[in-house]
Design brief:
α2 packs antiparallel against α4. The protein is of the alpha+beta class. It is built from four helices and 14 strands. Helix content is 28%, strand content 41%. Strands 7-6-5-4-3-2-1-8-9-10-11-12-13-14 form a 14-stranded antiparallel β-sheet, sandwiched between helices.
């Protein structure tokens, strides 16, 4: 019996030693991966290589009375990955973040976050979070994950879980990746949306659109107003496939509390996008009805090699295009504009609820 117990203890000690060694090796591997990611970020857009990054900056008025702002940014650094089809050798190219940073400040409190992802698998491997309170107290958490995304080590400056856990950090990583995917990939191919609302006459609706457009333009240019704004600016640097030149996309989302109440949901009332390359310039606007925040007007301007084309689409409360104006031969039915505008609306609401 004594020999059996002794043998079991030796096996357990050996197992613990192997696990400790595996954990130590994994942390070394993560630190190496972290250093490589930092080097990639430092060289992003240099030496003739196109920049591949996205910044989402947000600005929300939490309290008009006390002049309290919620401000910050969410930054993505990504690279192109290819998934090969073994049947015919073809591949699908997609953008995959390898590093995400987050910064937020509100009422004297600050939060800074870094998340490192395996560049090949896209799985979270490391997270660092730092909080600084308005009283000057600093809290730091570090989380290390194995190749499958399982937490293997936690290093905290406090024993309290009130500031987060390894699992809550994984949930945030999934949220950030969802935001990235919606912004980079899904927005242009968003599913069709059905609008609801009461029917106005065409003349009444066109007059309503012009009035709301002027009001939206006025509101979007102001930082402080009698409503609760939530403004988002998204800047994306990327390069499309082949020999295409680098692309810069700037997406501006202007939101407000849907019921002019600090506790209500935040909705987008105006959105703009601007894409530029060495030879192409495209600018779009999307106007939403303040009654239900459905798209009621879109404007699209494209300029290439000295030629400028413009498209204007006017919608009723049901999302039906009632007026089209363009100097181009192809006018279209604006279905893609409507779906994209719906995706931008969803994106702003996702950001407002979670950042």
């Amino acid at each position: 019996m004594t020999r059996t117990i002794l043998f079991t203890l030796i096996c357990l000690l050996g197992l613990c030693s192997a696990q400790a060694q595996d954990k130590s090796e994994r942390i070394k591997e993560i630190r190496k991966m972290y250093a490589e990611a930092k080097e990639l970020i430092a060289n992003n857009g240099k030496d003739g290589n196109p920049a591949k990054d996205m910044e989402i900056s947000f600005n929300e008025i939490v309290s008009i009375e006390h002049n309290i702002y919620n401000e910050g940014s969410l930054n993505f650094y990504f690279d192109e990955q290819r998934k090969v089809n073994t049947n015919d050798g073809s591949f699908n190219a997609y953008e995959q973040p390898y590093f995400i940073t987050y910064y937020n400040t509100v009422h004297g409190h600050e939060c800074f976050r870094e998340q490192l992802f395996d560049p090949k698998t896209g799985i979270l491997t490391f997270a660092f979070v730092k909080w600084v309170t308005d009283a000057g107290m600093t809290i730091e958490h570090r989380y290390y994950y194995d190749a499958a995304g399982k937490l293997v080590e936690t290093k905290n400056s406090t024993d309290s879980d009130d500031w987060g856990t390894g699992e809550s950090e994984k949930e945030l990583a999934e949220l950030y990746l969802q935001i990235f995917k919606l912004t980079i990939e899904d927005a242009a191919t968003a599913p069709a949306v059905k609008f609801q609302g009461t029917q106005r006459s065409k003349a009444e609706q066109l007059k309503h659109i012009r009035t709301q457009y002027a009001l939206a333009k006025d509101k979007s240019g102001k930082k402080m107003e009698t409503f609760y704004p939530y403004d988002v600016t998204i800047t994306i640097h990327n390069q499309e496939e082949g020999d295409c030149p680098p692309v810069t996309d700037v997406i501006c989302l202007f939101g407000e509390k849907s019921n002019n109440d600090a506790t209500s949901d935040t909705k987008c009332f105006l959105a703009t996008t601007h894409r530029t390359t060495m030879s192409f310039d495209n600018y779009t606007e999307y106007l939403y009805d303040p009654a239900n925040y459905n798209l009621i007007f879109s404007y699209d301007r494209g300029a290439e090699e000295g030629e400028v084309r413009e498209w204007r689409y006017y919608f009723n409360e049901h999302g039906t295009c009632i007026e089209r104006k363009s100097n181009a031969e192809e006018i279209g039915d604006a279905s893609s504009s409507k779906n994209y505008a719906h995706a931008l609306q969803s994106l702003l609401q996702l950001l407002a609820k979670n950042l």
